[in-house]
């Protein structure tokens, strides 16, 4: 059996002391930037059930593109729908719509 010394293949020694704090911070930042869209979709209360799974999958596979699609289609749409003023319709005591006088003239 052939024994190979790893130092012969790669003479540069490697230890944890060679890793700087900035390298650790960069690795943590990269991991967070990849996981954050998935967490934001997963923790959202705007969708539920299979739709949450679909949006989570899109954020998982497409990362920020999937999350921005989720935000603009679901979250932003709900905000605009709730900002609109409801249209009040005149109804009689039975709940039927009362036609306005302008419609009766035609």
Describe this structure in words.
The protein has helices at residues 6-9, 21-42, 50-83, 101-105. The protein is mainly α and 106 residues long. The radius of gyration is 29 Å and the shape is rod-shaped. It starts with 5 loop residues before the first helix and ends with a helix. The model has no long low-confidence stretch (mean pLDDT 77).
**Strand portion:** under 5%
Basic shape: rod-shaped
- Show unreliable segments: none
Number of strands: 0
Q: Which structural class best describes the helix and strand composition?
A: mainly alpha
Number of helices: 4
Helix content: 55-70%
What is the gyration radius calculated from CA atoms?
29 Å
Largest sheet: none
Measured between the Cα atoms of the first and last residue, the distance is 101 Å
Overall mean pLDDT stands at 77
Oligomer: single chain
| Helix-strand sequence | HHHH
Comma- or semicolon-separated keywords:
single chain; 106 residues; rod-shaped
Task: Provide a short characterization of the protein structure.
The chain is 61% helix and 0% strand.
What is the fold's blueprint, element by element?
Layout: H1 6-9, H2 21-42, H3 50-83, H4 101-105
Helix pairs in contact: 2-3
